[in-house]
Amino acid sequence: MNMREQGLIEKFHVRRADGRDAPGEKHHGAEYFVLDMTDDPHAIPALLGYAGSCGRDYPLLAADLRARVAGMVTAASEFVTIPETTLPDGTVVPAFLAGKYLASRGPGDIPLSVADAAPWVNISYHEACEAAARAGLDMQRETQALAIAWDVSQQPENWSGGAVGEGVLRMGLHKGTVHAAQPGSYESPDPEENRWFVLSNGERICDVAGNAFSWIHDDVQGDENGLVAKGIAANSISLTTAPYGICEKGMGWRPDGARNWSGRALVRGGCWHSERLAGAFNLDFDWPGRRCDIVAVRCTKSL
Asked: Which segments within the chain are labelled E, that is strand?
């Protein structure tokens, strides 16, 4: 019989590891409903529902279930390897893994990097940090964002002229041809809105520029929370790493000197209607508690 035409059936025989299903024991004759956590897509919402129901009486069990769901969701995410990168000032950024796509909102509010889901926008910086932590991931760091931008800027495939510095570095979705952040599977009919960037190791990463900004944990001039601590100095690598001037050759916008952005959260990349301001080196800020429909998050993790 087709499984879709079946109701509740006796599909499994269950034995308790503690032996308490033996005759005369408390659980003798108990009925069980078994979930396939590996292949059943309905298992995740069921586990989250049970965790929510049992949390007050069994907090450790609820925490374990949520952790298991986080691991299952993260395992479905696609990551790319960002090679060790030496920035122009000599700063060495160790190799790391980055979400291939901007994170979408997965089950249990776990960030999910997949092609067919739109980026998780309307999420504040603080909420994005919490979501990444739930998944055992990190928010993209400022040095990591610079490493990605620098790496892709050195690959001829990412330039409209076919050579490094020739033409314009890809800017992604930036011309207002769409009206919301798009999933990675979307392809603009305008070739000037190519969203894919080739890395020096041959891997590809989506939306380094355009589509939606990314919240950035500032590890250059930031405090322990990743927020700008003392403002941005004119000689900060946040401003000096781009190989060309402001809004030149697809670089995107950035401040033209020191800025007192204390207490703000950095954002990078640009969005679907940024026009010439979008770019791999685009740098701006937003208030860390604010939600808007043009700022998302990219998660990273150690190799």
From this structure: 79-82, 85-86, 92-93, 96-99, 104-105, 111-112, 138-139, 196-198, 204-206, 213-216, 265-268, 283-286, 295-296, 299-301
pLDDT digits (tens, 9 = 90+) for 165-177: 999 999 999 999 9
154-190 in b/e form (b: 16+ CB < 10 A) is eeebbbbeeeeeeebbbbbbbbeeeeebbbbebebee
Q: Is residue 111 packed enough to be buried (19+ CB in 10 Å), middle (13-18) or exposed (0-12)?
A: buried
What is the tens place of the pLDDT at every residue in 68-109? 888 887 888 999 999 999 999 999 999 999 999 999 999 889
| Structural domain spans, the chain | 3-75, 79-301
Closest to 203 measured CA to CA, from 132, 271, 151, 260: 151
Distance CA 73, CA 43 (A): 12
Sign of CA dihedral 107, 108, 114, 117: positive
The DSSP secondary-structure symbol of 272 reads T
Q: CA-CA distance, 221 to 228, in Å (whole number)?
A: 6
Query: What number does CATH give the domain 79-301?
Result: 3.90.1580.10
Cβ 65 vs Cβ 51: under 8 Å: yes
CA distance 267 to 45: 32
CA distances from 133 to 85, 139, 245, 301 (A): 25, 8, 36, 11
C-alpha–C-alpha distance, residues 216 and 206, integer Å = 16
Tokens linked to 142:
């400022």
